[in-house]
Design brief:
This protein has about 200 residues and is of the alpha+beta class. The chain has one domain: Glutaredoxin. The chain has helices at about 5-20, 25-35, 45-65, 70-75, 95-105, 125-130, 160-175, 180-190, 195-205; strands at about 85-90, 115-120, 140-145, 150-155. The chain has a four-stranded mixed beta sheet with strand order 2-1-3-4, with helices on one face. Helix 2 crosses helix 3.
């Protein structure tokens, strides 16, 4: 990546951070959208509003139930570099509903981690810099070193274990079926955020 590209990406990230919200503000936003039978994003369909309602319930549950081992807590608490975790999402995204509360649980253990959120459809330039296999997949976490403003790593749109499941299924069947998507939701419920936690701890390295 040349210097001009780096400067451009830094400017895009800076603009996005200026428009970002905290996790608690995001949760309030989703609760208000549910009350209005609405959703984030450019499309405002009944189906997406229903997903937003379902995801609000999922996030409520994970906000209360995600647990971290003492060993994991120690690893997170000992991280001593100042970073921003900037996450691109939308309220209707099923994967995000399982992952974002887990990111919050990890980030709140260490003041060096600043967890910020932006919406995909309002941040095209940012999303286009962090595509997954050419697609605008979310949630996408961008890890930024606060001292250098460098992007040091990314995570998402799914934990590694779930990504492998998706890739294996696509290789065999060509696309994800509704049945597989239900299986994936069951996997998230059974996993209880632990695979996401492991991936986030690896980010902190």
């Amino acid at each position: 990546m040349d210097v001009l590209d780096k400067l451009m990406i830094n400017d895009i990230i800076k603009d996005s951070l200026n428009n970002s919200i905290s996790y608690n503000e995001y949760r309030d936003l989703v609760v208000n959208l549910v009350a209005e039978n609405s959703t984030t994003g450019n499309e405002k369909t009944e189906a997406l509003a229903n997903y937003t309602m379902l995801n609000d319930r999922r996030m409520k549950r994970w906000d209360k139930t995600v647990k971290l081992s003492e060993e994991t807590k120690t690893a997170i608490e000992s991280y001593n570099k100042k970073v921003t975790w900037l996450v691109i999402t939308e309220s209707w995204c099923g994967d995000a509903a399982h992952i974002m509360p887990v990111i919050h649980k990890v980030a709140e253990l260490n003041d060096n981690i600043d967890y910020r959120i932006v919406l995909r459809d309002g941040n095209d330039a940012l999303m286009n810099e962090f595509l997954t296999n050419g697609g605008r997949a979310i949630p996408k976490l961008i890890m930024i070193d606060k001292s250098s403003n460098e992007v040091v790593n990314t995570f998402g749109p799914r934990p590694t274990v779930a990504t492998d499941m998706v890739n294996d299924y696509k290789a065999k069947h060509g696309k994800l079926t509704p049945e597989f998507k239900e299986d994936l939701q069951r996997w998230y419920n059974k996993d209880k955020g632990q695979s996401t936690i492991q991936d986030l701890v690896k980010l902190l390295g």
